[in-house]
Amino acid sequence: MHDLAIRDAVIYDGSGAPPATGDLAVAGGRIVSVGGKAGAAREQVRADGLALAPGIIDCHTHYDAQLTWDGWAQPSPALGVTTVIIGNCGFAVAPCRARDRDAMMRNLCNVEGMSLEALRAGMRWGFETFPEYLALLEGRGVGPNVAAFCGHSAIRTWVMGEAANERAARAEEVAAMATLVRGAMADGAVGFATSTFEGHNGEGGVPMPSLLAEDGELAALVGAMGESGGGTFMLTRGSRTTMPFLESLAAQTGRPVVVAALLHDHTRPDAAFAEFDAIAAAQARGHELYGQVSCCPLTMDFTLRNPYLMESYRAWRPAMKAKGEALARVYADGAFRTAMKAELDRAQGLRAFTGDWSRIFVARAADPAHAALEGRDVASLAAEAGEHPLDRFLDLGLAERLETVFSSLLLNSDEDAVARLLADPHSTIALSDAGAHLTFFCDAGFGLHLYGHWVRERALMPLEAAVHQLTARQAAIYRIPDRGRLAVGAHADLMLFDPATIARTANRRVHDLPAGASRLVCAAEGLHGVWVNGARVAAGDGPAAGAPLPGRVIRRFER
């Protein structure tokens, strides 16, 4: 007798092929039959024409810290996600010596928009090394399957200490880092991840360690990863990291290179497409490069206490180092404003905020006297007052004790341009950032947005192609065996949904993090069930009550 049978489903197997109607059966956590009529089963689900697909593989998450206290990686499983990849951008939490723990948490608080109080209250620190971290996750249990990058910034700090944030590495330090990468690959890392993006700053505006790495260091560490014969290199790219250099790493190692984040910038409308031209040329030469794109507009809610979107500007760094009353004094300082205006005027390269003040709005005024400003953009408010937008922005925040909530529409706002990126044959749809920037946005439901908005509403691609993008294609890029397909022998990672109603809800704020910290979350619509390794983890009304932790820490990958 089977453990589970889902009957009369429209089966999208993840391959990209058109669907077929039939049953699917599971035994021992694996699929034992697809199509036709399945035999008797202990658990039976009547699909009655609903779509059955592999669970979503979310390859760009930052659940590294959260998984130590929340093995479910909420809210992802209830949004159709059955596998998450952590350690992206090189912001892993292991290796980490005990003496460096608080500094690492303070850096994560800034670079990934996490609550320091929640991290200090929630993190379980029963590890120092990378294999000890994986063992802790296995011991505590995980809800979705988890694959982990070895992270450059963590490795750099382990080897160099405080100097990791200050200077280039010496030859012997690079060699020590390479040894750690080799060890992590042997212990089951999915690959090696780093960032050279200028907006990735830690506490006080100090660049994250990986931003200090020279090209030779990157080449040595990616080479160390490739010596295993496996691994995927993931990079969040800054302006100094060129596509030819990244292609050279793919050529040197024979391993896939995934480049984030190729988002559409209306101030540089051709930039992302030019990057994809370079990726296409590299693929034509036999070098495996992919560009990570998002199917969601990049929006962010923030206050002037923590305006993440400004942190790629060097002139903003005095504000990043200040707290409390000192921060207000920085914002009021004329020299700070003059320097920031000058940099905004000459801003180039990859930045979260491109200088378009018409895309920053007053979402919620702290003072009822300013309620009429809500919904207005900073550019028009500044024009009415005859002021520079930066002055209007800062003065409003100061008048409201830095409690004004602003909303920004930063990148990926031109849907026609985003459609071109999503349809590019060399793109990979990802960038949920789930687990990070929790007070600013929640894109953990990106897969539901792809199926609902882009497939049903925009008809950008057939559903079978979208399912392929989020399942078998991700498994192929990251060499994850036996997942992302509905096939006999594959792990039973499944989602059952109604294509006519599948969607994510609007975000809402909850206070369920350790220490009562808040975050934004969303829920699913039209999702009728999610299974990880054959165990149901979500039903139509949300997470399955009392469900076990059925996920696995994935340590074996294909070559």
Structure description:
By secondary structure, this protein is α/β, with parallel strands linked by helices. It has two domains: 56-297 and 412-483, Metal-dependent hydrolases (TIM Barrel), CATH 3.20.20; 301-408, no CATH class. The chain is 31% helix and 21% strand. It is built from 17 helices and 24 strands. Strands 1, 2, 3, 4, 5, 17, 22, 23 and 24 form a nine-stranded mixed β-sheet that branches. Helix 7 (243-253) links the parallel strand 10 and strand 11. The longest helix has 17 residues, at 171-187. It is globular and about 75 Å long. The chain starts with a strand and ends in a 16-residue tail after the last strand.
Q: How do the strands and helices of this protein lay out in sequence?
A:
Elements: E1 2-11, E2 20-27, E3 30-34, E4 41-46, E5 51-54, E6 56-58, E7 81-86, H1 101-111, H2 116-122, H3 130-140, E8 145-151, H4 152-160, H5 171-187, E9 191-195, H6 215-226, E10 232-236, H7 243-253, E11 257-260, H8 271-284, E12 289-293, E13 298-302, H9 317-321, H10 324-332, H11 334-345, E14 360-364, H12 378-385, H13 389-399, E15 405-411, H14 415-423, E16 427-429, H15 446-457, H16 463-470, H17 472-478, E17 494-497, E18 503-504, E19 508-510, E20 519-521, E21 524-525, E22 527-532, E23 535-539, E24 542-543
Parallel strand pairs: 1-4, 1-5, 6-7, 7-8, 8-9, 9-10, 10-11, 11-12, 12-16
Antiparallel strand pairs: 1-2, 2-3, 5-17, 13-15, 14-15, 17-22, 18-21, 19-20, 22-23, 23-24
Helix pairs in contact: 4-5, 5-6, 6-7, 12-13, 15-16
